[in-house]
Amino acid sequence: MAGARLSLAFLCFVVVVVASALAGGAGARKTVGEYVLRKGDFSVKITNWGATMMSVVLPDSKGNLADVVLGLDTIAEYNDTNYFGPVTGRVGQRIARGRFVLDGKVYHTYINDGRNAIHGGHRGFSKVIWTVKEYVGGGDSPYITLYYRSFDGEQGFPGDLDAYVTYQLSSPYVLALRMNATALNKATPVNFLQHTYWNLGGQGRGDVLGHTLQLSASRYTPLDEELLPSSGVVAPVAGTPYDFRHPTPIGARIRQVMGGRIAGYDINYVIDGEGMRKVAAARDGASGRALELWANQPAMQLYTGNWLNNIKGKGGKVYQQYGGFCLETQGYVDAVNHPEFPSMTVRPGQVYRHDMAFKFSF
């Protein structure tokens, strides 16, 4: 039965791959592969399926190597709904009822999360083949640049959009991620996010409740049961379980919050300051590994893997609830329906830029 399920999954993946290639235009031929960036004992594996980060391997305080990213064994398995490591778009996170108004015109996007749209629809940027534009696997600064042309009307979004994603390693133990997009002929909302699940103790090695977390965020946007900011309110974190202004174990107050209909964090923070600045810092005491996240976006979604439940991961590991956490820098959730939030509209000729840097230590 396991073999039959895998064959079926692979067949479905092939169908999606062919459809994606055909959607790229007449004569388009795209292939899916895995690309390793390596600098000493620090390595990152990327696939151009969804511009997905498949693994990050680095040492702990004793020099032992481990992969700190949750994921799956084969590219075919990444056609899933857990979003293990991809870039999501054209608009990551949720759009209420899959509907928004732009310049007086109503647009309807693909609904794939109850009554709402999430992460760009059922075939968002996480489920398409990106073109490898440049790839240097080794040397002083290994990198890969990926490109995707999103067409007018794709998943309901207006206008053609050129999107680029670059992953690059630098010393010491820094992974930079640069995402940009240009609207070609129509105004359109754009909100990319990177959806990697981190476990600094090593993927599949228990939960992350003991990781300490610090966020540069004194405010957050309260969300309703559908994980939408229906009130439009921006509230202080002081006196709430959402307060991570000082290093605090992720699990310290996790049972006091609901990420929708289940205990755990799935909440949007408003990041203090502007421009490229430190957003978050996390540390696993047992391994000594630590992560600093720097970014230039106004907000960040913290998600603690609330819905992970017996997920077969890499190397025979099984992921359970709270097996990883996501730090998703982004624009405000559902900003297309909230004029009081910073706009995510990109007009023709304008360039959307989203920069991140993951700085590891041990």
Describe it.
The chain is 6% helix and 36% strand. The protein contains one helix and 28 strands. The longest helix is centred in the N-terminal third of the chain and has 22 residues. Strand 21 and strand 22 form a beta hairpin. The chain has one domain: Beta-galactosidase, Chain A, domain 5, CATH 2.70.98.10. It is globular and about 60 Å long. The chain is mainly beta. It starts with a helix and ends with a strand. A nine-stranded antiparallel sheet has the order 10-11-12-13-28-22-21-16-19, with no helix packed on it. Strands 18-17-20-23-26 form a five-stranded antiparallel sheet, with no helix packed on it. Its EC number is 5.1.3.3. Keywords: Carbohydrate metabolism, Isomerase, Signal. It is an enzyme of class 5 (isomerase). Pathway: Carbohydrate metabolism; hexose metabolism. Belongs to the aldose epimerase family.
What keyword list fits this structure?
5-stranded antiparallel sheet; Aldose_1/G6P_1-epimerase; globular; 362 residues; mainly beta; carbohydrate metabolism; single chain; disordered N terminus; 9-stranded antiparallel sheet; 6% helix; Beta-galactosidase, Chain A, domain 5
